[in-house]
Amino acid sequence: MHQKLIILDFGSQYTQLIARRVRELNIYCEIHPWNKIPKLDSSIFGVILSGSPFSTLDALAPKPDLSEIKGKIPLLGVCYGAQYLVQNFGGKVLPSKIREYGRAFLEVKDTSCPLMKNVGTKSQVWMSHGDTIVDLPPGYSVICSTDDVLNAGFQLENEFTFGIQFHPEVYHSTEGTKILKNFLVDICGFTQDWTPNAFVSETINSLKAILGRDKVIMGLSGGVDSTVAAVLLHRAIGNNLHCIFVNNGLLRKYEFESVLASYEGMGLNIRGVDASQLFYTALRGKIDPELKRKAIGKVFIDVFDDESKKVENAKWLGQGTIYPDVIESVSATGGPSQTIKSHHNVGGLPDYMKLKVIEPLRLLFKDEVRRIGTALNIDSAILNRHPFPGPGLGIRILGEVIPEKIAILQEVDAIFINGLKDEGLYNEVWQAGAIFLPIQSVGVMGDERTYENAVALRAVSSTDGMTADWCHLPYEFLARISSKIINQVKGVNRVTYDISSKPPATIEWE
Ligand code: XMP
């Protein structure tokens, strides 16, 4: 088992950021809800207590029993985590007279403290707290302060227990990564060997051990996660991995053929199934976006089910689930949230398929998946692809989805996406696509009046799709794309550009 750090989550918006910083140091970590502390074993080298939206003074604040951790292995409390250590072990926390949010300057008071090793004497840190530590518990000593907060950091020397009031994980804490590294490497003793190559070889070995000679079925979408997961599985079990790639007729222009060819090029045992007509039939007459999604989802499951029956004695279903989909987050009311998001690349499969699920990437963040993909020599064009929704162009054609509209939208989309690629803008944009609007408008081409379709272009910047801003693409670029679309795509005489952010709009129009 790999050396690991446990982050106990008290519900802070920054908890995942702590995990990312730790992993960027090539150290493996897991986030666990505060009320589900894992049992210590020899693989756990340290624990970090996260921040929280709560004050330790709230009656409902999370208050776990730390007796199995504190003094047994290195422990670092961050913000709420630091205050909880103080309050729980005999010190005092009170609402501060001066609330500290944002920038503060940290002064190291104890240069011999290993947590503060090589930290500049006056560095910028980011604060976000309304309470302050008034008295430290007996035996604890101050290691750093800011102008307004005397006890900004403390230690209990003989126990390797530390607390810091500021957030080392945020970008604006200039020495934050150094402080985390001091804790993880010097104090906990991590060896920083959680590298992409180590992950690849460990994962392949463990997949071999789990799967043996069992057969695995997997639906591929052309996206990064399912591709990387499939390549790992293929390295472990070879052709016992049976991949299925369904053409729902709602993909981008030539996407089915080109993605299938690249899967074959990777040596995957893949079957491409063109089920476009089944999807078109199911979509006929449907206008409501949710009904369209349901129709597409149902046909997909039927097709996948039919195809997987052709693989005899399959025992497993491979999926490209990643870590943000499985973290059990803490709800604002203190208890662990009941809803663990469970993302299924192939939608809810019928129970009778009774396959066990295998998810080789369930411990990775998206950027880590890309790094693993690079270590596996997967083409960067696949690794850097924009996200594309499962229902595809079906939710980018407002109103009824018919083959004629799909053909037009595929052309428009191809001009836009290829234009972004040709002009070096593709990787600047998080997601882009075209939308077929349900209106026609008057235009003039040559000497003729036209009455044709309008399309919208959408390009957004985002990190996770939860919030997004529209991309400020150069006007000259938009002008070139617009005239190319109107000149080359028959049936379109008007192009608009969507300048709405999410929220209040969404990325997709449906
Ligand atoms: P919205 O439109 O909710 O999109 O702002 C956020 C992200 O989710 C994608 N999306 C979907 N993906 N099935 C999917 O697999 C869907 O039904 C679906 N709807 C939206 C969208 O493309 C964006 O990346």
Relative strand content: 25-35%
Characterize the overall form: globular
Helix content: 25-40%
User: What is the straight-line distance between the termini?
Assistant: 45 Å
Structure, described:
With 510 residues, the chain is an alpha/beta fold. The protein has helices at 15-24, 80-88, 176-188, 196-211, 224-237, 255-265, 276-283, 289-309, 323-326, 366-375, 380-383, 403-422, 475-488, and strands at 4-9, 29-33, 44-49, 75-78, 92-108, 122-135, 141-145, 153-156, 161-164, 215-220, 241-247, 270-274, 314-318, 356-358, 431-445, 448-461, 469-470, 492-497. A nine-stranded mixed sheet has the order 2-1-3-4-9-8-7-5-6, sandwiched between helices. It has a five-stranded parallel sheet with strand order 12-11-10-13-14, sandwiched between helices. Strands 15, 16, 17 and 18 form a four-stranded mixed sheet that branches. Helix 5 (224-237) packs across helix 10 and helix 7 (276-283) packs antiparallel against helix 8 (289-309). The longest helix has 21 residues, at 289-309. The chain is globular. Bound molecules: xanthosine-5'-monophosphate. The site of xanthosine-5'-monophosphate has 11 residues, from loops.
Protein topology:
Elements: E1 4-9, H1 15-24, E2 29-33, E3 44-49, E4 75-78, H2 80-88, E5 92-108, E6 122-135, E7 141-145, E8 153-156, E9 161-164, H3 176-188, H4 196-211, E10 215-220, H5 224-237, E11 241-247, H6 255-265, E12 270-274, H7 276-283, H8 289-309, E13 314-318, H9 323-326, E14 356-358, H10 366-375, H11 380-383, H12 403-422, E15 431-445, E16 448-461, E17 469-470, H13 475-488, E18 492-497
Parallel strand pairs: 1-2, 1-3, 3-4, 4-9, 10-11, 10-13, 11-12, 13-14, 16-18
Antiparallel strand pairs: 5-6, 5-7, 7-8, 8-9, 15-16, 16-17
Helix pairs in contact: 4-5, 4-10, 5-10, 7-8, 12-13
The structure holds xanthosine-5'-monophosphate (XMP).
Xanthosine-5'-monophosphate binds next to loops.
